[in-house]
Amino acid sequence: MNNKASNKHSDARSFEMRRLIFLGAAGVLILVVVILSLLSAFGGKSDGQSTGNGTSSAVTEAGKLVIQDLYEGEITIPKFNVPLNTYDQSKFKNDNGLVTYDDANASLGIDVSDYQGDIDWAAVKASGIDFTMIRAGYRGATRGKLNEDSKFADNYTGAKDAGVKVGIYFFSQATSVTEAEEEAGYVLQLLQNKSVDYPVVFDWEQTSVDGSRTADATGEQITSYASAFCKKIAKAGYTAGVYFNRSLGYNYYDLEQLKDFEFWLAEYRSVPAFYYNFGLWQYSDNAQVQGIDAAVDINVSFKNYG
């Protein structure tokens, strides 16, 4: 009788031990699942960044970032360590195609070349235009010759006399770092004894001209050209910048290598959705501005440059 009671007590202790071991293992398993879930939600490959333009990053892999674009939905872009576009969508005001940004540092501007012909700059100023980006010159697409814009001097003097702040751009077709530096030197010559309020910008664009010297340029190459141009401009004491559209910004330029310079974005929308930050935004190439007979590009500056 005593042996039977002892065996019953032993069996009970053994069962309780197995139960405790089972419960402990189950608890550990649940804890591991919770930890993995938290890591998946807040860490791992998702960086969880969001911007003021309605886009947010989802996954990074192989140096790429998958985002929800305001207009195109899910797209994959390069992941650059540069500031993001955080402009407030609600501050963009559209008055029959005239887009402004409701901020004390923001202003409205145009960019002009000889294409616009003779300009009545007093009328431009009276229409509410605060600044202009003036083309100083360009390099030919096929022969590579450097040329001064035929209206550069008139536009510079007219804008300054009317109280319109001035920035400069050069239309590049450089095919080497040496040519980009040559373009910067050419611009600096044109700017002798002239004051500039806004950035001096490198404007390299793809062209459809037959026999174009730049048709096969790579992103690595044009990034090196932009960097060389801007470094020379900055060394001379000017604020340097780079102009690009979404395609060049996402598919060609390495923006991280250009982060020391200003970015001028061309995106023809009512609200810019480019993921990374920019100080100037060209939102139309078909604006009508008092004092200019031809259509003109129109811009918003988000910074008080001058």
**Helical residue percent?**
25-40%
Number of strands: 14
Range of strand content: 25-35%
The end-to-end distance, rounded to whole angstroms, is 103 Å
Note the total helix count.
6
- What integer value in Å does the Rg equal? 29 Å
General description of the model:
- By secondary structure, the protein is of the alpha/beta class.
- 31% of the residues lie in helices and 26% in strands.
- The chain has six helices and 14 strands.
- The strands form three sheets. It has an eight-stranded mixed β-barrel with strand order 6-7-9-10-11-12-13-14. Strands 1-2-3 form a three-stranded antiparallel beta sheet, with no helix packed on it. Strands 4-5 form a two-stranded antiparallel sheet.
- Helix 4 packs parallel to helix 5.
- The radius of gyration is 29 Å and the shape is globular.
- The N terminus is likely disordered.
